[in-house]
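Predict the 3D structure for this chain.
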Amino acid sequence: MAEETQKDHPGVRVPPPLAALVAVGLGFGLDALWPAPLSLIGLALPWGLRLALGAGLLLAGLGLAFACFLRFRAADTAIEPWKPASALVAQGPYRFSRNPIYLGLMLCLAGVGAMANSLWILAMLLPLWAFLRVAVIALEERYLESRFGEDYRLYCSRVRRWL
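Done. Predicted structure below.
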C-alpha cells in the first residue's frame, strides 16, 4: 500500500514557483555580469508606462494563480504537483487553459522583466517554458490521464494546453 501511495502523484521534483524565482534570479545575475547595452523595452516605452505594463503583467499572473488556487480549494484537491489529485479541475481558468498557473508564472516573469527593463529576465521566459513543459507538464499530463482516464482525455480535447 505504501508503494501504491508513493506512485499516486505526478512525480514533479521542483516546485514550479521556485523555478520561476530561479529564472528571475538568473536574469538579475546575468544583468549584473553582462548588462544589455540598451533594452528594447526601455527604448520603446517610457519608464512610467514600462512600470505600469510590468505591474499589470505581474498582477495578472498573480491573479490567475490565485483564481486557480481557489478552484483547487473548492474541488478539495491538492494544488501541489507532487501530491495526489483527488479531482480533475476543469472550471474557472481551467476552462480556457490546461495550465493557467504556469501561464500565470510566465506572466509574472514577463512583468518583472518589464519593470526591471531587463532583456535577460525576459530571455528567461524560454528556459522557464521549456522546464515547465518537460519537467512538470509532461509528468502531470501522464499522471492525470492515468488517474482520470477518459474524463481527462475529453478535457484535453476541449481545452488547449496554454491558450
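Residues 1-6 have pLDDT under 50 and may be disordered.
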